Amino acid sequence: MKLLLMIHGLGVGGAERVMTLLADGLAARGHQVYLLTLSGVEEDFFVPGSGVNRVRLDLATESTTVVEGLRANMRRIKAIRRKIAELAPDAVLSFTTTVNILALMACAGTRVPVFVSERVDPRGHLIPFRWSVLRYLAYRRARALVAQTAVVAAWYRQRLPARVLVAAISNPVALGTPSGPAAVTMPAPFILAAGRLVHQKGFDLLIRAFALAAPECGQMHLAIAGEGPEADALARLAREYKVEDRTFFLGRVSRLGALMREAHAFVLSSRYEGFPNVLVEALAAALPVVATDCKSGPREILCGGRHGLLVPPENPQALSAALVRIATDQELRRGLSAAGPSAVSRYDLSRIVGQWERVLSGSGNI
């Protein structure tokens, strides 16, 4: 098949990483793959392999008014439509809400089937009303919608007509032993967290929880890997709670897997999620994990708590208690460390790419 894959950009992020893995995986299976981004080359963090044809529209500028935004999106739709006419793909696959809507609008009136994928739980991730209305109208024109978890797929299945296939496909994770040392040095022991520094990821809750747990955790440190708009606010919060000397903001970290090899445990403090890749990577690295039991993602990955500790979201006290357990209970850590890798085989890259291939080919059976 000739496939056109679309996403806003290939900067740092879970959706971007999955799109790159998927493009490479489909190309390796003999498909002719084009990967289109609205952004330009300067924003690339993930780089697809040579088997993937890269298309950059360089139309990702920010708009300051609704009118500017409307005009910018009309330019994007026209550019996407021209590219689709030029390439004549057998199918289009897009990631994330706004790009999904643009793809569906660009393909209106053509016979090109559009497959869209949501990369976050819509019950927690609120979008502007106008985009919510457009999503409701546009998604009814999709050939299929792919969510990351069964619960999100069920939510969409209740809201879309039966003619739209709704499937759940977990994220693929490229497993393997990381080569080379970690790109940063941390004082031992430390608990690791990673993600974009935004409200969704709950790092403010984690800092409060760590401050409560610190007196009972010996010399334990907290390492937070990632960049984002809340960086300064989180640093101030660490100072306010008097844990700034034990909390390290690492920024963007290459070879995160190597840093995982050195960590005591991993913690995910998110308020909501789609499918947190980093949690699966921590399990694959045999790290004991603590995760918030948000509506989608961690419970499914951790098999209801068999492979890690689940705590209520938005609850620093419960998260603190779990941090104390994971820091002080060696038998618990040993058991979780041994169980983690066995939980990730279902996310094998080849297996997940095969599921996508069956959906894109129209079989509907994954």
Give the rounded overall mean pLDDT.
92
The share of residues in extended strands comes to: 15-25%
| CATH architecture field of the largest domain | 3-Layer(aba) Sandwich
How many beta-strand segments? 13
How much helical structure, as a percent, in the residues? 25-40%
CATH names the topology of the largest domain as: Rossmann fold
Number of helices: 13
N-to-C terminal Cα separation, in Å? 18 Å
Shape assignment: globular
Q: What structural class is derived from the secondary structure elements?
A: alpha/beta
Largest sheet, in brief, is: 7 strands, parallel
Number of domains: 2
Extract low-pLDDT stretches: none
Q: In the CATH hierarchy, what is the superfamily of the largest domain?
A: Glycogen Phosphorylase B
